[in-house]
Structure formats: structure tokens, C-alpha cells
Amino acid sequence: MLSQGVLVIGKSLSVEPFSPRERDFGLTCISALVHEVSKYRGGQELARQAFDRFYPSFFSDLSRSDDRKLLIGRCGIDLVGFASLIIDGQSGEFIVFVDSKFRNQGYGSKLLNEIVAVALGCGTLSIYSFVSPGARSSKSALERAGFKADGLRMTREA
């Protein structure tokens, strides 16, 4: 089940098979991002600390649920960003985050396209995300991917 929930996107921006070490490192990084986005700036030492605190509950949440999907973007051992999707019936809510030092390099678009493909592959009829009013680049990226704005909510039908 875990291998269906976590995909590692490599430097070539294609989905790659991942080793247990890469999976563990990716889960460590994603856990650090989810819980401490503002504090996380790469480096295995901080990721290891986050791993010790957050990994057990994160792993159990992911492994017991088919309705949660994660994509982890990486470039070497650096975490580029992540996309997560929670499916609720025939719709899915997602978020895409790209670390500031990797923005404007195509990683966000790749993560967005991959999470949309995962959502559609799970049979969702619509997917959505919420975008803060000041996030103009996020809104325009979603519009280019076929999403329509409804207030702060951006939705795309299957």
C-alpha cells in the first residue's frame, strides 16, 4: 500500500522507482514539511529530528488509508517540494508546495500535473485546492492546468 501512496520525482522530473532508503528519506522530508514548513531548509540532520518526532504517526496515517496520496519531489537528496491529495468520495482536495529555492524551474508544474493524474486515476470527478489571495503565481499555474477560480477555491472537473 505504501508504494501506491508515495512517488518520488527525480531530477529528470520523471517518476522513478525508489529504494527503501529513498522512501524513508522522502517520508522524513515530507513529514518535516507538513509540520514545520517554515523551519525546514534541507539537510539530513533536521530531517532526522523531524523523522524522530513525526514519522510514526505519518506512516500509520498513510499506510492505513487508500484515500491519501503523496508525491515527493527531489533533486539528488534535496527536497524540492511535495504534492498531497485527500480523496473524499468523487472529489479530491490537493496541495502543492515547492521550496522557494526551487521555484520557477518547472518542479511545481510537474508536481501539479502528476497529482492531477493520480486524482483522475483514482476515479475522482473533480479536484480542488485553496489559493490565498496573494498567491498570484499559484493561481495562474492552476488556471494554465485547467482549473477555474471560485473565490479562494480552484476547481477542475474530470
UniProtKB/TrEMBL annotation:
One of its GO terms (molecular function) is acyltransferase activity, transferring groups other than amino-acyl groups. Transmembrane segments: none annotated. Keywords: Transferase. Residues 28-158 form the N-acetyltransferase domain. Pfam families: Acetyltransf_1 (PF00583). This is Acetyltransferase (GNAT) family protein. It comes from Acidithrix ferrooxidans.
